[in-house]
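Below is a filled-in request sheet from our internal design queue. Each sheet records the structural input a requester submitted and the sequence that came back. We keep these sheets so that new team members can see what a complete request looks like end to end.

REQUESTER: design group, bay 2
PRIORITY: normal
MODE: inverse folding
CHAIN LENGTH: 235
BACKBONE (tokenized):
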């Protein structure tokens, strides 16, 4: 005996609803297996769910495109910050800058090793420290480091910060829509379940094979257990 299973993807959910709606629209209303309310609910729900899924895809695509540009800014910021710290460390080794001045940059405990710049958050943290530290050292009468200058580092870091902020906005927008879709799936599944229950009840007087075929016309998906004579069917 085959068993039914609700769709497990958003595409298959939309397909299930549309199949039931299209079947109901293609026959005389006297022979429609669904009651008026269930059919109206299906039309309303599928329209909203489609809008949500399309909105999510557009938002996600925007995030992906923005991320391509952002990754170039990440690379540049990481490169300039690490290069600046290398030059700074060489100045300390050559005694051109006092070791205790590394405290201005938050580098005093790293033993002239580059800080961890492996994540966006770490780049954000160390970029601020390095830029503020160099500015403070110069205010105390220190000679500015060049190649790269802190001004150039700041340009690359500012571009990174702006891109980071923009990317967070895109991520938050995508996550909000994703959560909205996730919450709405429960409503969609409930409508699909109502449709299938009504269809099966309407066709219950037919013998099994004919009943199953008629139910499938409304989008009900049946599966067969291993060893059953009829081949398994997929979404």
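RETURNED SEQUENCE:
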């Amino acid at each position: 005996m085959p068993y039914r299973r609700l769709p497990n993807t958003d595409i298959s959910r939309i397909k299930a609803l549309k199949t039931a709606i299209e079947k109901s629209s293609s026959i005389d209303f006297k022979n429609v297996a669904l009651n008026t309310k269930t059919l109206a609910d299906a039309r309303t729900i599928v329209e909203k769910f489609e809008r949500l899924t399309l909105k999510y895809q557009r938002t996600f695509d925007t995030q992906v495109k923005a991320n391509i540009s952002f990754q170039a800014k990440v690379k540049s910021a990481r490169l300039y910050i690490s290069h600046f710290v290398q030059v700074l460390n060489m100045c300390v080794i050559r005694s051109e800058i006092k070791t205790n001045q590394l405290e201005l940059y938050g580098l005093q405990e790293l033993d002239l090793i580059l800080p961890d710049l492996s994540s966006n958050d770490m780049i954000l943290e160390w970029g601020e420290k390095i830029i503020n530290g160099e500015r403070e050292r110069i205010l105390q009468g220190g000679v500015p480091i060049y190649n790269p200058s802190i001004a150039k580092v700041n340009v690359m870091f500012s571009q990174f910060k702006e891109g980071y902020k923009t990317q967070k906005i895109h991520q938050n927008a995508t996550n909000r829509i994703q959560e909205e879709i996730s919450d709405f799936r429960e409503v969609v599944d409930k409508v699909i379940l109502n449709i299938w229950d009504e269809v099966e009840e309407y066709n219950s007087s037919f013998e099994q094979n004919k009943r199953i075929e008629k139910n499938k016309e409304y989008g009900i998906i049946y599966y067969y257990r291993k060893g059953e004579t009829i081949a398994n069917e997929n979404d």
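SHEET NOTES:
- The longest helix spans residues 36-93.
- DSSP finds five helices and two strands in the chain.
FILED BY: M.R.
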